Structures are given as C-alpha cells and as structure tokens.
Amino acid sequence: MNILTFDIEEWFVWEELCRFSPQRRKEYDDMLARLLDLLEERGIKATFFCVGMMGKNFPDVVRKIREKGHEIGCHSNVHTWLNKMTPEECLEDTRQALDNLQQCIGEKVQSYRAPAFSVGEDSRWVFDILSECGITRDSSVFPAGRDFGGFPSFGEDAPSLIETNNGVIREFPISVTSFFGRKTAFSGGGYFRFFPYGFVSRRMKKRDYNICYFHMSDFVKEKKFTKEEYETYFKEKASSLSLFTRSVKMNFGKERSWTKFSRLLEDIRFVTLEEADKLIQW
Ligand SMILES: [Zn+2]
C-alpha cells in the first residue's frame, strides 16, 4: 500500500512572514494547478493536509483541491510546531483549525498531520487532544531522528493503533529505511529530493507500506529566509549557519524534483489516507 500526501501551508506562511506578492502567489497557484492536473491525468487521489488558516484566508485553494476529489486533512491552524505549544494551546489550535477547514469545505475532517512532524516521546499528549477533537487518522509520527520533531522511539514504521483517553487513533507513520546503518526517511520532502530516483522507487517496491509526503515548495524555488523571517517562523534565534543550512535544505535537488515526482506517479499506485484506512484489517 502506497499513500500519497501533501502539506499545504505556503500561501498562509508567506503571507504571515512577508507580504505574499501576487507574482509569488501565482507561482504557487500555477504549481498546484499543474499538480492537480497531473493527478487527474494519472487517476490518483491524495490526502492534502491543509493549515486551518488556509481555509479562512485562502478558501479557494482548499476548495479547488477538494473539488478534484482529494481528501482534505488538517495540518494545525497556524503551522506552529506542536511541541512548542502547551496542551491547552494545542487543543485551541486544533479546534480552530478543524472549524476553519470544515466551514470551508462543508465536510468533516478526520485526518491530521502535525507541522514538521512535531510529535515525539515528550508530547504523546497530542494524541489525546486529536482524538478529543474528532481526529481518527494521524500521520504525524516520524519514527527516526530529525532536526525538528522526530519520534525515534515510536517503533516500526507500520500502520498502528494508538490508545488515547478519548478513543483510538489510527497512526500512519512516515516510512523510513536503513542507510549506512542509520534510520532515515526517503520517500518525501528533502529526503526524496536528496536520494536518487532508483533508490527511492526500488525501496518502495520492496516494502508493503509506504507513505510519501510533499510540499508545493518541493517543486517551487524558495527565496532565502531573512534573519527576521527565520526567527518568526522557527521561533528560535537564527545564526549564519542556521540560515545557510536552511537555504540549502529548502532548495536542494529542486531542478529534478518535479521530473522524479512525475515518474513516481507512473511507477507506483497510490491511495489517500482515508482509502488506506479502509483497506487495512485493523
Ligand atoms: Zn508543514
């Protein structure tokens, strides 16, 4: 089973950080249109985790995705890492996010992904909150080490049930593989841009469960963060090294990422999180 997911936040994030110029907005709108066309052409449906405020400030973007038959999931309200919030703040953020998205599309939203996979051993309480808010499927667990977030102690990268105070959450962790003795993701974001296409597709074909995740920014060239933007976005001090590292990570492999991605859609059959949930004998 292969699940295709996208995290949709850039419209909102760039509007918050600096003015989202019409020209920049066009780049993202065009990339989304290109993506939706490609998915339609290949007959593939995906799950799009949208930031709640996208439903409020950019409802046309969220509706366009839903109208094409894709699943809308929730990606927090304002894209603040969950481990930088208190449980009370997280509850409020999740409620607002779901309200914004559900008002926008007029349907219940049941799938969730935390910004930057920011759920770990110290923030297991997040699952109680998600369940309390009506979330039944989650894909926030990144079962390997990571700059931000990461949950190396989670265990196997296979769909699993998480018991919470308010019911069960069906978890779809990010796929990881072993690379020179280290556990690493390979089928999404910067990892997908970094590894050669053959490496990713061969590993995917050998496994029973894969989940791929992308951002529009995996295909659109990003400008560099200014010191101020970095500090607003990451809520921590910026250094020359952190600014440089971020810029490299944000743009590495983008010349080839769209071609690799289109090829992946030719080689591999994908389903949404919602469809995967129905296919699994829990
Ligand atoms: Zn995100």
What do these coordinates show?
With 282 residues, this protein is of the alpha/beta class. The protein has helices at residues 10-17, 22-42, 52-57, 59-67, 87-105, 125-132, 189-194, 197-206, 227-234, 240-251, 254-267, 273-279, and strands at residues 2-8, 47-50, 71-74, 111-112, 137-138, 160-164, 167-171, 176-179, 182-185, 210-215. The chain is globular. The model has no long low-confidence stretch (mean pLDDT 91). The structure holds zinc ion. Residues 7, 9, 75, 79, 115 line the site of zinc ion.
- Tally of structural domains: 1
The total strand number stands at: 10
Largest sheet: 4 strands, parallel
Radius of gyration: 18 Å
Mean pLDDT over all positions: 91
By CATH, the topology is TIM Barrel
**CATH homologous superfamily caption:** Glycoside hydrolase/deacetylase
How many helices? Answer: 12
Distance between the termini: 14 Å
Low-confidence stretches: none
Q: What is the class in the CATH system?
A: Alpha Beta
- The second-level CATH architecture is Alpha-Beta Barrel
* N to C succession of SSEs: EHHEHHEHEHEEEEEHHEHHHH
The shape, in one word, is: globular
What share of the residues lie within helices?
40-55%
